Amino acid sequence: MLTREGALEIFTKSNALLTGHFRLTSGRHSGQYMQCAQVLQYPRYAATLCEALAEKFAGTKIEAVVGPAMGGIIVAYEVGRALGVKAIFTEREHGVMSLRRGFVVNPGEKILVVEDVVTTGGSVREVIDVVREKGGEVVGVGVLVDRSNGKVDFGVRTESILQMEIESYDPEECPLCKQGLPLVKPGSRQV
């Protein structure tokens, strides 16, 4: 079983946990940023983290795993592999999260929604909405890193590998801005 310390070691070794002055997808600012793409570029680390996430749902009937593009694609694939079920992803089309590429969620299908990092939970909520619109049943949410430290509630069982309280600030009140530190927008989604 992967411990919190073991997970932190993996994120540290892969340079996934960054320190500086960052603009988050939510628009808030932070002195730390978890860039899961850095850890997911190593198949060995991705497998270890996602197998541990899949273990948290052992005994739960899951027929498919769905994650949002981009961050959730590898996580969905690896968790699906560990669970022995299909893995698909949603992506934005004209700004709206949707299933594309012929992916299907069948009515009544038991779905686990996964993501690499959750801060406000916006992308996960969008995926949950897509799954429910297609008639799927969301049985849980699994994330590698919960930056909300358990504060985000999706209304279903939620598990994470690592919970972190990474402080974030409204841009108008950001102490890093007041110090004049350069602002960086990491990640893949533009705001």
List the helices and strands and how they pair.
Blueprint: H1 4-13, E1 17-23, E2 29-34, H2 36-40, H3 43-55, E3 64-68, H4 71-83, E4 86-93, E5 96-99, E6 110-118, H5 122-133, E7 137-146, E8 158-163, E9 168-169, H6 175-178
Parallel strand pairs: 3-4, 3-6, 6-7, 7-8
Antiparallel strand pairs: 1-2, 2-9, 4-5
Give the radius of gyration.
16 Å
Record field, number of beta strands: 9
Q: Gap between N and C termini, in Å? A: 37 Å
Helix content range: 25-40%
Molecular shape: globular
Order of helices and strands: HEEHHEHEEEHEEEH
**Low-confidence runs of at least 5 consecutive residues:** none
| Biggest pleated sheet | 6 strands, mixed
Approximate strand percentage: 25-35%
Q: What is the CATH first-level class name?
A: Alpha Beta
Structural class: alpha/beta
Total helical segments = 6
CATH architecture tag = 3-Layer(aba) Sandwich
Key phrases:
globular; single chain; six-stranded mixed sheet; alpha/beta; 191 residues; Rossmann fold; three-stranded antiparallel sheet; 30% helix
Describe what this molecule looks like in 3D.
- With 191 residues, this protein is an alpha/beta fold.
- It has one domain: Rossmann fold, CATH 3.40.50.
- It is 30% helix and 30% strand.
- It has helices at 4-13, 36-40, 43-55, 71-83, 122-133, 175-178; strands at residues 17-23, 29-34, 64-68, 86-93, 96-99, 110-118, 137-146, 158-163, 168-169.
- The strands form two sheets. A six-stranded mixed beta sheet has the order 5-4-3-6-7-8, sandwiched between helices. It has a three-stranded antiparallel beta sheet with strand order 1-2-9.
- α5 (122-133) links the parallel β6 (110-118) and β7.
- α3 (43-55) crosses α4 (71-83).
- The longest helix has 13 residues, at 43-55.
- The mean pLDDT is 92.
